[in-house]
Amino acid sequence: MSSLIEKNSIVLFQGDSVTDAGRSRTNDNELGNGYPRMIAALFSAKYPEKNVKFINRGISGNRVKDLQARWKEDCVDLKPDWVSILIGINDCWRRYDRDDPTSAKEYENGYRDILTRTINETKASLIICEPFVLPIPEDRKRWREDLDPKIHAARQLAREFNAIYIPLDGIFASACTKREPAFWAADGVHPTSNGHALMTIEWMKAVKA
């Protein structure tokens, strides 16, 4: 079976530090050290004839409101055929480290805005990656009360926009029954290379690659 991603497509990755993963700000060919680079390498090795271009515009620390502010420049203007978004953990984290919360409703409304703009202003298909947190260190367990409603919002938006949905929080929870959480993400948020590889496998499955 051939992938859902067609020949000469542009695939855009968007999000925060998990997506950023040290990418270049000046060279689109340098995708960082995380799942976008792994996906681009694996997909291109499997389907060299498709000539798919992968672009990473993740920015460390971003929340939904930051994506809204830069969506024209960093999404619409790039004319992507696919947009893969992973956003939400900083909308949760800032409540705990800076007392700067984002409500689930604010998150949902902001996310809906960027998805609506993508549908209206590009021809892109949508991939929504579920935000996640692993229970390490101990204080991350408290975050569930904030993150879970945002996960439910992301699921609802995936239904609303007919997006491919990758349930990463559940995927990592299942993986943590096989190896300890630190194997996948040492601080519960930023994946190890093992964690990024797991994300890559699940992303490739989602696009039938």
Relevant CATH superfamily: SGNH hydrolase
Q: Give the SSE string.
A: EHHEHEHHEHEHHH
Describe the strand arrangement of the main beta sheet, using strand numbers: 2-1-3-4-5
CATH level 3 topology: Rossmann fold
The CA-CA distance between the termini, in Å, is 8 Å
Largest sheet: 5 strands, parallel
Q: Can you offer a commentary on this structure?
A:
The chain is 46% helix and 11% strand. With 209 residues, it is of the alpha/beta class. The chain has a single domain (10-206), classed as 3-Layer(aba) Sandwich (Rossmann fold), CATH 3.40.50.1110. A five-stranded parallel beta sheet has the order 2-1-3-4-5, with helices on both faces. Helix 2 (35-46) packs across helix 9 (193-206), helix 3 runs parallel beside helix 5 (104-121) and helix 5 runs parallel beside helix 6. It is globular.
How does the SSE layout of this entry go?
Elements: E1 10-15, H1 17-20, H2 35-46, E2 53-56, H3 64-74, E3 82-86, H4 89-97, H5 104-121, E4 125-129, H6 144-160, E5 164-166, H7 168-175, H8 181-184, H9 193-206
Parallel strand pairs: 1-2, 1-3, 3-4, 4-5
Helix pairs in contact: 2-9, 3-5, 5-6
Comma- or semicolon-separated keywords:
11% strand; Rossmann fold; 9 helices; alpha/beta
Summarize the structure.
It is built from nine helices and five strands. By secondary structure, it is α/β, with parallel strands linked by helices. The chain has one domain: Rossmann fold (3-Layer(aba) Sandwich), CATH 3.40.50.1110.
